[in-house]
Amino acid sequence: SAKAAGSNQWAFFKQQMTEKAAVMLRTEASLHDAILNNEFLLHFQPKLDIRTGELLGCEALIRWQRDGRLISPMTFIPVAEETGIIIPIGRWVLEQSCKVLNRWQKQYQTSTIIACNVSSKQFNSASLVPDIKRLAMRYQIDPGLLEIEITETSLMNDIEPAIDKLHQLKSAGFGIAVDDFGTGYSSLSYLRHLPITTLKIDRAFISDLPEDSAIASTILMLGQQLGLNIVAEGIENEAQESWLKAHGCIIGQGFYYSKPLPVEEFEQRYLVPAAQRVSSE
Ligand code: C2E
Ligand code: MG
Ligand code: MG
Ligand code: MG
């Protein structure tokens, strides 16, 4: 009967939900162990001055080393976000980045910026701003060298408290980038009120270049009008680069320059003084 069929469907649905919950719990448990067992690491992808090739900064991107394999953040960050375990993971990313900044200052006398991705839940937690300030103090970081990347979508979720938090970070001197810009639904007039320093044009609009440039040029003009830094993310070829150069975009990131690299490789390629690099090759 229809009723029996309905109840079968319900049983099936319930079983599926239970399985999903079980997978989530298992992943949460192993993510928790991952913190304790030091299974996370950061890769660094350079951000370069498109005009000169000079290194300006980099983005820290998390990886999970599990049974000899590197697991992409795209598979575990969403689970971490849903279960809340993103908070300690995100804190680990910030602390690790501050440690690296501290070491780079001493070892290379560099002013390379590190940008850290902050997820929605992490951004909304009350401890974010005090955590960041405390870390910057402990590791003696010039706040201008630490940049927070937050996606347009997570900012727009709950805009009023977000603005307040951005003010606190910006007035302390930290950089704030809106990540994946152009994919959300923010009203452009809102952007004026956001205390941010940088817009990152989403990769989707860079991959359209040079044929389809309407969105990229609109974002560039808007950002220039508002006096923001603009980063083009996901540059993969010379044609994209030339278009961006011709349209006044200064900061570039993408496989065309480099994939995200393990820290030692990043240092060897980008932080060793030029003279030394030439003679060692
Ligand atoms: P995202 O913040 O937008 O980071 C850029 C992603 O694009 C990175 O992927 C990077 O490897 C990739 N990418 C860079 N250049 C190119 C290119 O030229 N072509 C293509 N096809 N891809 C490019 P990744 O490392 O897999 O990270 C994916 C996403 O995971 C990030 O997107 C970010 O949303 C999230 N994520 C990564 N690390 C963290 C973290 O520490 N915390 C949080 N909350 N999220 C993170
Ligand atoms: Mg990012
Ligand atoms: Mg992005
Ligand atoms: Mg993204």
Task: Give structural notes.
The termini are far apart. By secondary structure, the protein is an alpha/beta fold. The relative contact order is 0.11. 53% of the residues lie in helices and 20% in strands. β8 (229-233), α11 (238-246) and β9 form a beta-alpha-beta unit. Strands 1-2-4-5-6-7-8-9 form an eight-stranded mixed beta barrel, surrounded by four helices. The protein has helices at 2-36, 73-83, 86-108, 120-124, 128-138, 152-157, 159-171, 188-191, 203-207, 214-225, 238-246, 263-271, 274-280; strands spanning 40-49, 55-66, 69-71, 113-117, 146-151, 175-181, 198-201, 229-233, 251-253, 261-262. The chain is built from 13 helices and ten strands. Bound molecules: ligand C2E and magnesium ion (3 copies). Residues 24-274 form the EAL domain. This is EAL domain-containing protein.
Hetero groups in this structure are:
ligand C2E, magnesium ion
The parts where pLDDT drops under 50 for at least 5 residues are none
Order of helices and strands: HEEEHHEHHEHHEHEHHEHEEHH
The helix content, as a percent range, equals: 40-55%
Tally the beta strands: 10
Strand content is: 15-25%
Q: Can you give the mean pLDDT?
A: 91
- Principal-axes shape call: globular
> Cα distance, first to last residue?
77 Å
Tell me the number of helical segments per DSSP (H or I, 4 or more residues long): 13
The largest pleated sheet is described as: 8 strands, mixed, barrel
- The Cα radius of gyration reads 21 Å
The assigned structural class equals: alpha/beta
- Sheet with the most strands: spatial strand order: 1-2-4-5-6-7-8-9
